[in-house]
Amino acid sequence: MIQPVSNTSMMVDSGTVSMPLNLIMVATLVGKLFDVTFIDERLGNKVPDDFSGFDIVAVTSRTLNASRAYQIGDAALAQGKIVILGGVHPTMLHEEATAHCTSVVYGEIESIWEELANDVMTGKMQSIYRAKELKPMGSMVHPDFNYALSSKNAKKYSSRIPLLATKGCPVGCNFCTTPTVYGKSYRYRELDLVLDEMRYHQQRVGKKNVNFSFMDDNISFRPKYFMTLLEEMAKLGVHWNANISMNFLDKPEVAELAGRSGCDLLSIGFESLNPETIKSVQKGSNRLGSYETVVSNLHKNGIAIQGYFMFGFDNDTEESFQLTYDFIMKNKIEFPVFSLVTPFPGTPYFDEMKPRIRHFNWDKYDTYHYMFEPSKMSGEKLLSNFVKLQQEVYKGRAIMQRMKGKPLNWIWLANYMMNRFTGRLTPESYL
User: Fold this and answer.
1) Confidence of residue 173 (pLDDT cuts 50, 70, 90)
2) Contact 178, 229 (CB under 8 A)
3) Percentage with pLDDT > 90 across the chain
4) Coil, strand or helix: which one is 22?
5) Which candidate in 10, 152, 298, 392 could, as Cys together with 303 as Cys, close a disulfide (CB 3.0–4.6 Å)?
6) How much is the average pLDDT of 383-400?
7) Are 212 and 160 in contact (CB under 8 A)?
């Protein structure tokens, strides 16, 4: 079972990486019936050239590492092995993926596992496994982290423990792959199961103050579920971070409870300061008028913000970069992350933009490469402003201004690393 490394030139799989929760969950499920060898290339673990010791080679893939996944699949097929490809990219482009494997798992494996396992044992594999309906999360197995932590290079994993409480997102942003992979319906685990998993990890590492990262796409979509979860987490003494929609973070009581429950960072997709852009990508949860209120509520409760900003939309102009810089500096966003608009295959946005996309080199579908020329500025202007914005935000003086009074923690280190990284950037870095 293989987590491939990406070939991107950016810092995607370098340094510390997060534990691959989805693959750990798959290994736990598969391991009940089969012997599993777990290989994470991002750690420096090597995929063998000789697959003679294995009956099946299973590879997960996102778009940015699809070429590597295909390379592994082709090599295993040439040696007569059953090859299974799963993950976001094989789901979104399953017809392409079938050329490099025996079978594609469309979406999540849990909902088709019994059928797939039976076919493996009988040797009658289908070209694609796609669930008619998705199973509720109550049947989700307790992930066995030993599959990942047994690696001699496991020290390269982040100390933050990944956790999953919900799946799916009904929002329907036109650039997002989540509705296809996990469905538009919103599913969630019973609260006791989530809390039990947290207690298990506290016991495993021998301390209460454990750092968790929720891997959910939209953990706050059901406010009652989310708030009840936070009330219970407040009793555990843990710390946590998550991706979150801002649609109800403008309520002070939500930020207060998040802070009290141990939240130290929330990742928020601000995306743009242009209302026409927000409208065009169908991100209805973003209301520009509430951006500063959301930031203020979180900061008052000691919660740092990892803010995501995208550039290259057709409505973007050179003014978009200045507006973003002003917003970040005024509101002291601790960890700004900048990306270029990337139409991912299989999404409505990809279909819309396909005639204008410059290339289909999946290695560069990492949100850091120039994909198409926006309507209101040249590609040259886009990239020069994109580099300038990052260098200005991560100048030493700007870091001190944004981080003044903040606790000395890993976010300071991240800013220092970004200062070094952005100083080396040129527009050519993104071609």
Assistant:
1) confident
2) no
3) 81
4) helix
5) 298
6) 98
7) yes
- For residue 169, what are the CA distances in angstroms to 82, 141, 179, 218, 246? 33, 21, 6, 6, 14
Contact 54, 30 (CB under 8 A): no
Q: What angle do the packed helices 223-233 and 252-260 form, to 10 degrees?
A: 30
Helix ranges (DSSP H) in 128-260: 146-149, 178-182, 191-205, 223-233, 252-260
Q: How far is CA 88 from CA 20, 105, 163, in A?
A: 13, 10, 19
- Once rounded to an integer, what is the mean pLDDT over residues 346-361? 94
Residues comprising the chain, all counted: 431
The set of residues, in sequence order, having a beta carbon less than 8 Å from that of 352 and lying 6+ positions away, is 174, 343
Interatomic CA distance for residues 40 and 91, integer angstroms? 21
Q: Are 268 and 244 in contact (CB under 8 A)?
A: yes
Give the pLDDT score at 13: 64
Confidence of residue 248 (pLDDT cuts 50, 70, 90): confident
Strand-by-strand arrangement of the 239-243 sheet: 161-163, 211-214, 239-243, 263-271, 304-311, 335-340
10 confidence band (pLDDT: 50, 70, 90)? low
| DSSP letter, residue 157 | B
H or E stretch covering 269: strand 263-271
pLDDT at residue 177 in the model:
86
Q: Name the phi and psi angles at 368, rounded to 5.
A: -125, 15
pLDDT tens for 401-418 read 999 999 999 999 999 999
User: Where do the H-state alpha helices sit in 9-49?
Assistant: 21-30
> Is the model's pLDDT at 170 over the cut of 80?
no
Structural domains of the chain, ranges and CATH numbers in brackets: 2-130 (3.40.50.280), 159-430 (3.80.30.20)
At position 307, the amino acid (one-letter code) is: G
Q: Nearest 5 degrees, angle CA 61-CA 125-CA 70?
A: 25
Q: What is the distance between the alpha carbons of residues 1 and 23, in angstroms, rounded to a whole number? A: 8
Q: What is the pLDDT of residue 14?
A: 64
Q: For residue 12, what pLDDT is reported? A: 63
- When the pLDDT of each residue in the chain is averaged and rounded to a whole number, the result is 93
* pLDDT > 60? residue 200: yes
Residues 209, 237 contacting (CB under 8 angstroms): yes
How many CB atoms sit inside 10 A of residue 35's CB?
A: 8
| 271-291 tens-digit pLDDT | 898 888 877 766 656 677 889
80 dihedral zone (left: phi>0; alpha: psi -120 to 50; beta): left
Tell me phi and psi for residue 166, to 5 degrees.
Answer: -140, 165
**For residues 419 and 398, what is the distance between their CA atoms, to the nearest angstrom?**
10
